[in-house]
Design goal:
Elements (H helix, E strand, L loop, with lengths): L5 E2 L15 E3 L7 E6 L10 E6 L9 E6 L8 E5 L11 E6 L3 E10 L4 E2 L7 H4 L25 H7 L1 E3 L8 E4 L11 E6 L9 E4 L5 E7 L2 E3 L4 E2 L10 E2 L5 E16 L5 E11 L4 E5 L4 E6 L4 E5 L8 E5 L9 E6 L12 E4 L5 E6 L7 E7 L1
Parallel strand pairs: 2-4, 3-5, 6-8, 10-12, 11-13, 14-19, 15-18
Antiparallel strand pairs: 1-9, 4-7, 5-6, 7-8, 12-18, 13-14, 14-15, 16-17, 18-19, 20-21, 21-22, 22-27, 23-26, 24-27, 25-26
């Protein structure tokens, strides 16, 4: 029987955004252009996050990162920005990396370490197993006993199915869930299914009585409180407020330490928050679709609304969005025409664009209406 001399208990099955391994970058510390190989099938989509270890760290002032799938072509070279304001990275430390569509964001405060236990943990002797001279090696006395356990107990169940949160949407913003075996540490990840949605500002999450921590989103490399949208419309012209809908599921990561969090609905004023739960990626939190007006709301506060009204009068009319934006959106529109007709090509104007509506003026003898799209926060 082969003698077991060492056992590595580092676990690389830390599942984030479909990647179940730790990416390694071996570029020299002073070299700004960092490169790394990623698994086959990896795509650089906005919102993707993963774990990456810089073997030599980084001391370059303005680093970039290029990821190349195994057997594929290199993806676009993008800038690498530390959320703490510093781009210095420690060698052989594992960082959480988030791609926002334009650059890679490294959370300098969210790191993981791997410890190795040497020696044979199987306390058996030759007499015990009657297999001749089997060496009995105990655990190495120098092995670390303070290994950062970044793979959460029951995390596989949590990620696959979601922990159910039954906290009321409107009575309290303090959301509470229980997950057997959970311990709170920097980088802990849970997936929570909010059965009743949420309608209140600045929600918090408390897992296993480890303390209420503010829920935030990442936008433009800044943390924001999730936005509450007024004028929520369910197709029956019901007016209320809504942050996210019933049965929405989020994957959240705990980030310890003081964080600066901005309020997107209050001129981006900032608050200092002690520890946050970051909603990973940019999932849809609210949506409604109809033949008249529709909308989609994303976790980072981005809202897209659109409609295709029929307009039969030759005058200015107001188009009201299903949801009220927190800030004035960008609106584009095109005329609806029944056929190829020169007279119908230049027949309208949109103006007086506000956070809750805009005005359209049709100047034609053949008014049919417009198709419009509004996007903003």
């Amino acid at each position: 029987m082969a003698d077991v001399n060492s056992v590595n208990v580092s676990n690389t099955d830390y599942v984030m955004s479909g990647i179940n391994t730790i990416i390694s970058c071996t570029t020299a510390s002073a070299t700004a252009t960092k490169t790394a190989t990623v698994p086959k099938g990896f795509t650089l989509d906005s919102g993707v996050s993963f774990l990456i270890k810089f073997t030599n760290g980084n001391t370059a002032t303005s680093p970039t990162l290029t990821l190349t799938p195994e057997g594929g072509s290199a993806l676009t070279n993008k800038s690498l920005v530390g959320t703490s304001g510093s781009n210095t990275l420690t060698a052989n430390v594992i960082y959480t990396c988030y791609y926002n569509g334009t650059s890679f964001s490294i959370d300098n405060n969210c790191t993981y370490h791997i410890n190795t236990i040497t020696g044979n943990p199987h306390h058996v002797t030759a007499t015990d197993v009657s297999l001749g001279n089997v060496a009995n090696k105990s655990l190495d006395a120098t092995a670390s006993t303070t290994s950062t356990n970044y793979v959460q107990n029951n995390v596989a169940t949590s990620i696959a199915n979601g922990v159910v949160c039954n906290t009321s949407a409107s009575i309290t913003n303090a959301k509470v869930v229980n997950l057997t075996g959970f311990t709170l540490f920097n980088g802990a990840t849970v997936r929570v299914s909010f059965q009743n949605g949420n309608t209140l500002a600045k929600p918090t999450l408390n897992v296993n009585s480890t303390g209420a921590k503010t829920i935030v989103v990442l936008r433009n490399n800044k943390f924001y409180f999730p936005a509450v949208h007024t004028g929520y419309w369910d197709g029956a012209t019901t007016t209320s407020t809504r942050m996210w809908d019933n049965y929405v599921t989020f994957e959240l990561m705990y980030l310890s330490g003081s964080k600066t969090v901005y309020d997107s609905s209050n001129n981006d004023s900032a608050s200092s928050v002690d520890g946050v739960w970051l909603i990973m990626g940019n999932p849809v939190v609210n949506s409604y679709f109809s033949t008249d007006s529709s909308y989609t709301v994303y976790a980072n506060g981005l809202i897209e609304q659109w409609g295709s009204p029929t307009i039969t009068q030759d005058s200015g009319i107001e188009i009201t969005y299903p949801l009220t934006f927190n800030k004035t959106p960008t609106v584009v529109a095109t005329p609806k025409t029944a056929s190829l007709d020169r007279e119908q090509r230049y027949m309208f104007q949109i103006y007086n664009i506000l956070s809750n509506k805009f005005t359209v003026y049709m100047n034609t003898s053949k008014p049919n209406g417009i198709t419009w799209d509004a996007i903003g926060y």
